[in-house]
Amino acid sequence: MSEEALFDLQGVAKKFVKGKEQITIFEDLNMQIAQGDFLAIMGPSGSGKTTLLNLLGGVDQPTSGEVSFEQKRIDKLSEGKLAEWRANNIGFIFQFYNLMPMLNAYRNVELPLLLTKLSGSERKKRVENALKLVGLADRAKHMPNEMSGGQQQRVAIARAVVSDPKLLLCDEPTGDLDRKTADEILETLQLLNTEFGKTIVMVTHDPSAAKYAKRTLHLDKGEFVTDPSANVA
Amino acid sequence: MSLISQSTAVIVMNVRSLPRRFWMSAAMVFASAVVVAILLAFLAMAKGFETTLQSAGSPDVAFFLRVSSGAELNSSMSNDQVNLLRNAPGIASDENGPLVSPELYVIVDGIKKSSQTKANIPLRGLGQQGIALRESFQLTQGRMFASGTNELIVGQSILNEFEGFELGSEIRSGKNSFTVVGIFTTGGNVFESELWADSRVIQNLYNRGSSYQSLRAKLTSPDNLEQIKAYIENDPRLNQDVQSEQSYFAEQGQGLSYMALFGRVISTIMALGALAGALNTMYTSVSDRSGEIATLRAIGFSHFSAFVGTMAEALVLAVIGGLVGSVAAFIFFDGLSAATLGGSFTQVVFQFELTTDLFIQGATLALIIGFLSGFFPAWRAARVPVIVAFQNGR
Ligand SMILES: Nc1ncnc2c1ncn2[C@@H]1O[C@H](COP(=O)(O)OP(=O)(O)OP(=O)(O)O)[C@@H](O)[C@H]1O
Ligand SMILES: [Mg+2]
Q: Is 3.40.50.300 the CATH number for A5-224?
């Protein structure tokens, strides 16, 4: 799996210092993520799934090792450059949606576009398209607290894709949703992967959620353990 | 470019989320309002007092007192001295001779309408030209006192603030009694806190012989004071200090300039208290919004926008407080009449005066509170780690 690696992690170590104690999450992690992949990451609580996602998203830095995106190191970028990089390349989807409670659906989706030079009318077109994509065109004026969890997560997905990033990073995107709603969200993610070519990395506890992915990696004690049921394309 | 649209979006969100922290925000507005109102009250008081005294003094009137007497009540000068001073160089004259007014200054009792307490009122014995030396003088009711009679005219502020000075009233003081025959204004300045009568009548009734307490003289030019000082120096019979009437009143006005200072000290201390509360409000706001801040940072918003958003919130709250405080100060204090001890233990009636420059000082204080209470929390907001967005729960 080397052709067109979007992400390349080489010898990544991540340690946290908690008081006098040092916690090692990863000792020597190596992985590649190809363009167009839909990768599910599973593993027990505390195994470092969120930490890995944060490293990929430039939200956290490795203690040592290299994180490259399109052959460029991101682990050494300044905070300001990282923010810019995230704005250009990444859409985040969170377990608890993380919508701005004071903004309606439209304004929430528009947020990433405020970082671009797009004109007002271009922004409007993009926001409307993104809301249409997640089936919420008629909810543009609704506030987050007027929507169900599933609807809020759809707004969050629209927000994640509105600026057309290559990569979607999702941390337990269905963790807070019932089965039926979860399936709808996962179908939407699958659509984004197959029809729109988004590369997706999704952390989940839910084996049936992982089934929507092209492949699944199991993380345990800071290492990927081979899983026979993985690689169902 | 995008910094502006990012920051605008963050500011809009912060301001909209204010109701979520309604009471804390209201407390910050209130604290800043109180501090500004108190500052303005003191400044308005000092300003009003200063205006009342300063507008009374004219730069081209020379004012003579016995050496180091400080105020009229403690001064005295003989008729001979007055006659010598009358002929000093640089004094203007008209068809009646030099424009000078030798004056007496005694004290009568009055009852304040507001508190029903006794207070000292100055009764001034005016020379023939006394009126001519007060350009703002206007008789509003009745007529002038006639020379040689127990008649007096009453300043408008005395009429307003004290009992029994209406036109036609009889005023008793010790064994003497006077009739009020007129009411006058001098444009709101300190002379309106006085009663005026004929100087010779006062000499008589108060056993002053032919002596006076002060002398006013119209100068042909304000620059003539030096000449007059030299004239006094060269004549051993004279022992007077001379200065312009304006500078005399300016000195007297300093009596309340400590009010302005006191007001600044008090409001600074209170501002520190308000600041502590405001900091608490703003830190709460930042921790309340840390999830949102981190999410925005994950999306790619800058540190700067988080900083600006918090700063703007603090400034908005403090400025609203400043406005409320200014309006309250204006409603409660502007034009409020007060009487206080003036130069010679007499009452000076003056009005609190709120002017634009005082409002600017109030607004500045509000901005300082806003800036200081916003800066450190804004700094913290800018440093909220992006990981917070992923920490479960909100
Ligand atoms: N900032 C931090 N400081 C100290 N320890 C941390 C920090 N972030 C994570 N950890 C620790 O690192 C370990 C891995 O955390 P992580 O959040 O990546 O786990 P996870 O696999 O996402 O677990 P979960 O399934 O519960 O979300 C945990 O033991 C956690 O306590
Ligand atoms: Mg996690």
A: yes
